[in-house]
Amino acid sequence: MTRTGKAYNRRSLLRAAPSLTVVVVVLAALAFAAPALAGKPTGDFVNFAQCPTKVTGVNSCIFGQTTSGEFVIKKTIVPISKTITLQGGIITNEETGAETFVEAANGETLSKTPQTVPGGLLKIVAPEFFPEPLKKIINEFINKGITGVNATSELVGKPTISRQNLLSGTGSGFVLPVRVHLENTFLGPTCYVGSKAHPVTIELTTGTTSPPLPNKPITGKLGELEFKDENNLLIIRKNSLVNNTFAAPEAEGCGSQILFGLFTGLIDKAVDSELELPSASGNNTAIFNGTLENATAAAVIASEK
Fold first, then answer.
1. Side-chain half-sphere of 10: how many Cα atoms within 13 Å?
2. Rounded to whole angstroms, how far apart are CA atoms 108 and 231?
3. Residue 44: what pLDDT?
4. How far apart are CA 78 and CA 210, in angstroms?
5. Distances in Å between the alpha carbon of 120 and those of 185, 209, 274?
6. Helix (H) and strand (E) counts in the chain
7. Using an 8 Å Cβ cutoff, are 42 and 48 in contact?
8. pLDDT tens digits, 83-120
């Protein structure tokens, strides 16, 4: 195959052996095209506006949206009810086939989409060992109805990707190093589970997991593949990425706005008690259902207007 911006003929692809390797090669082989005039992608490529096509070596663009699923830490289940977007580009090493994920052009690689925690802080009460002034403050906050909590997954490192693993259902397709931001008036603006130093590392697969007990194996799903625009665009619908082997560390930074943060460590312990943190591998689950789109960078650039 030559490194040109020309589309591949669909019939020739279908006549070839329908191996997963062929699918990956079709998506990765087109080289990065010469820069076009500044503009935005159009038509079927409109979702790739933040693909980092100006980064040297980027030859593919990724756009994924999670529209349902759940994030579970111990007994706390957070349904995914608002769309989470993952976007960026891919540099493929022509000799080894290894893929490097490149973050979105605007820096918003993973959208910060708050998800509602069912029940909020309803079960959190001031522990008996807290100082009386702090117990009073905590219980007043809760009794006034300030109980709703949002949980937002935020990247704290660069994702990794293997499209071969995604397509074959073996190994990790995406690895997301994140922290979970717990937000409400009482917890304040700096309450997190996970950090850059101690991330919650979620190794997502379309295959079957092998978690320690008490979790049992769960299986993801590649979904339904559709090639468009002369094979320059692959859309995978009804995709399911799963993982239930990750661990979650203790909370930190909670209640930093109460009495100038004097009792932050104690509020952290209250959150840890409620969420049963730290939570070891085998107790947590992530299920992300949605759609994945993968386009050649050359086609995205060619569509710009």
1. 9
2. 27
3. 98
4. 22
5. 12, 30, 10
6. 6, 14
7. no
8. 999 999 999 998 999 999 999 999 999 999 999 988 77
Reported as type and span, the H/E element at residue 285 is: strand 284-296
pTM value is 0.81
Q: Whole-angstrom Cα distance, residue 192 to residue 172?
A: 25
> Can you tell me the distance from the alpha carbon of 167 to that of 129, in angstroms, rounded to the nearest whole number?
52
For residue 77, which amino acid is it?
I
CA 53 to chain CA centroid, nearest Å? 21
Cα–Cα distance list, 3 to 53, 56, 199 (Å) = 16, 15, 38
Choose among 117, 112, 124: nearest CA to 73: 117
Which stretches of 104-259 are assigned E, i.e. beta strand?
115-117, 149-155, 160-161, 174-184, 188-193, 200-204, 224-228, 233-243, 251-252
Taking each helix axis from N to C end, the angle separating 264-275 and 132-143, rounded to the nearest 10 degrees, works out to 50
